[in-house]
Structures are given as structure tokens and as C-alpha cells.
Amino acid sequence: MCLEIPHPAVRTCLKCEISMCALHLKPHLEKKTFQSHTLVEPTSDLSARKCSKHDEDVKYYCFEDKSCICVSCTIEGEHKNHNVKSFKTAHSELRIGLESKVKQITEKLKLARGFLEKARQNETSVKAANAELKQNALDIFDNIIQLVNNYKEQMMEMIEAEQRLLVDSLEHSTGKLTEQHHLFKEIQQQADSVLTETDEFLFIQKHQEIQTKLTEALEKPFTEPDEKDLNKRKLFEDLENKFVEFQAEMGKAHQDLKVLFLSSELTLDPNTAHPKLMLSEDLKTVRYTATKQAYIDHPERFDHWRQVLCFQGFSSGEHYWELDTGEGYWHVGICYKSMGRKGSGTDAELGCNAASWTLKFHDELSVCHNNVGTPLQMSTQPTRLAVHLHYDAGTLTFLNLTDKQTRLHTFRTRFTEPVYPAFWIQSVTSTSWITVRSRFKDHVPKHRQET
């Protein structure tokens, strides 16, 4: 507060050691006598601006000890010969330093915000992917349970059907035996009645009457009981046929699980694509085009062979991906990132060097590594393929999924670098293309597709 009148102070004079309101501040602002006085924000405690050792105003800043000091401290005190500067100079230098650090921290804050946003997006993406993975896994296992239940019901129905046939046969046999039993019992009773006749004439008459029945009954073949049992061998053979179908369906379910847990979400790398290869917007499909694409020059771009790699590389674990192919000739496989990119030499051609392994179709199907090809048996051109990579085991397996799953070939080696999925469109037609199938969208279990 102002010392003269009870108004809020607006400035404090360090020299006069008083606080003043706007009215009493005017002389300090207008008269030359007060121009050398230092005015600061209003404060009631000026002791902080006094040197505790010399009771003098602090006017300098010691950069070494990072403290405010008076003249005596500078000349004869403990700060003698230190890097000491006036408040004005120190203020300027410290401000410049602080502004520089604020700029740096602002950049770090911006970077942190970016990382935080990326982390949140990744968290959201991971949660969504996990939820989708869980739901797809549940659907597949529901399908497996349904397959088992269906097979169990079929087995029970077959056993019951066989049992019904057997029971019907046994009931028919029992019916015949019952009729014979009644017939024999009736004749026996009649014969016993004749034997009790004492009158000779009547005995002879009754004997004549029953004689024919006795002869027919004795000559009639006796029906022996059937000793039948379930034909387990035939039943087993029928069940075996059903089991083959069951195994095929379970194989499909197992394939769904493999796709679900091992499949990798691949995207094509535009920086590696040959100028006459056009990539789809989602970076899933590559096709040949007669028109050169406006790709920028890049050291990783193939400039002679019409090839492209994926962004994703693998240096451990098991990985699986599926492909659809169009007409014409193609190569699919993997390669090291160190494989050549420029020129027409074999060092840049998939399958023709030690850094790449491929399955290729060129009128016939074959595999190739280090320029050594191996022909494969083929009935029709594959249009859907799968690649199974087990990096740690050193195996690369190609599968034909066009009609039913068939293993085409397995490379066995020891990988020494990260490997990248690679493709080559060899035909120069617009119908030549390769599509990398999406992890979840293209692999929904059959019963989910029907709902």
C-alpha cells in the first residue's frame, strides 16, 4: 500500500525504499532528480534486494555462483574475480538463454504431443485389433465345435440306423419263431388229447385227423434264431468316409487359425516399385502399366526388373501371407534388403542370386534361388497362393490354395538378414497383377460369411 494514502501501490522505489500509488509516483516519473532511481513492482519486503553481508543494494549477478550480489561483494568479497555482470546485462543474457531453452522445450513438447497422439492411436488400434482377433478366434472355435458336434451326430445317426436294421431283422426272426412255437404247442396238445382216447374206434378216427398236421409240422423246417450283431466293420468303414470329410473341414478350420495368428498385414513399398508398376491406393495390389508412373528417384527403386517389395521385413518368428494373382507371368517370394536394385544383372533379379527365393509361373511352375531353378508339377495355373515363413527354422513354404491347399515347395536355409516379401510382374499386359490379401477382411470363417 502507498505510505501517504491508503491506495494500492503501483511501484516501489529501491533507492527511497518506499511504495507509492499512482498519484505519489508522478514526481519519480517527471523529475530528473529521481530518474536514477530504480522502480520495481510493488513489494512490502525489500530485504531480498539487500546484501545480507554488506547491507547494500544488490545490483550485480554472479554467473558462477548464480546469486545476486552488491558492489562490495564484487570488489572485495567472495565473488571477487568471478564472472559478474550488471542486472541489465545479466537480464539480457539470461533472457536469451531462457528463450532458447523455451524454444527447445516447445519443440520437445510438440514432439511429445506427437508421440502421445501416436501412442494413443496405437493403443486404440491394438485394442481394436485384439478385439477383432478375439472375435475371429471365437468364431473359428465355434466352427470347430460345430464340426465336432456334426460329426458326433452323424456317427450316432449311423449307429442308430444300423441298430434299427438289426433290431428289425431280429424282431422278424422272433415273430417266425413265435408262430412255430404256437403251432407246435397246439399240435402237441391235440396229440396228447388223442392219446387219452380209450375207445379204439374213436382213437383211430382222431388219429387220422391229426396225422396230416403232425406230418406237416414235423417236415416243416425249423427256423433257428438269428445270432446277429452290429456290423462294426461296415459301420467303421462308413464312419471312416465321414471322418475324411470331417478331417477336411477341420483342416480348413486349422488353416483359418493359422491365418488368424500367423498372418502378417503387408503393404507394398512405393519407394521400391519399378516405374512401370502401378500400386493401388491401399498398397495391396500391384499391376503392370505401359505408362511410367511419376515416382521420385530413390536408391531402393528397381529400375530394370519390374519388381516391388513390401514395407514389412521379418528377422524372427513365423509369418504367413496369402496372395491372389492375375493372368500372365509372375514371381512371388522374399529377398534381403541388400539385394541389388539397379541394372539388368542377376544381382537385382528375384530368384537369380543368393539374396532371394521365389516361386514363379512362366508357362510352367518352378522355384528358383541363386539362379538355380526347380520345376514343379502343375495341373492348372495357381491363382491363389500362400507363403509360410519360419525365419528361425530357416524354412520358406509355398502353398497352392486355388482349389484345395497343396504344398508346392519348401526352401530350407539359414537366413542371415531380415527378409522382405517380394513380387515380380513379368508379363506386359494390363491383366497382370498380384494382390496381397488382408489379414482379417479376407479370412472370415465360412459360418460368419453366411450370417
TrEMBL record:
What is the protein's species of origin?
Acipenser oxyrinchus oxyrinchus
* Superkingdom per UniProt: Eukaryota
- Can you name this protein? Tripartite motif-containing protein 16-like
Q: Which SUPFAM superfamilies match?
A: B-box zinc-binding domain, Concanavalin A-like lectins/glucanases
Gene Ontology terms, MF aspect: zinc ion binding
Q: Which residues form a coiled coil?
A: 116-164
What are the entry keywords?
Coiled coil, Metal-binding, Zinc, Zinc-finger
Cite the SMART domains for this sequence: BBOX, PRY, SPRY
A Pfam family it matches: PRY
Domain named B box-type is located at 46-87
Residue stretches making up the B30.2/SPRY domain: 246-441
Q: Name one GO cellular component term.
A: cytoplasm
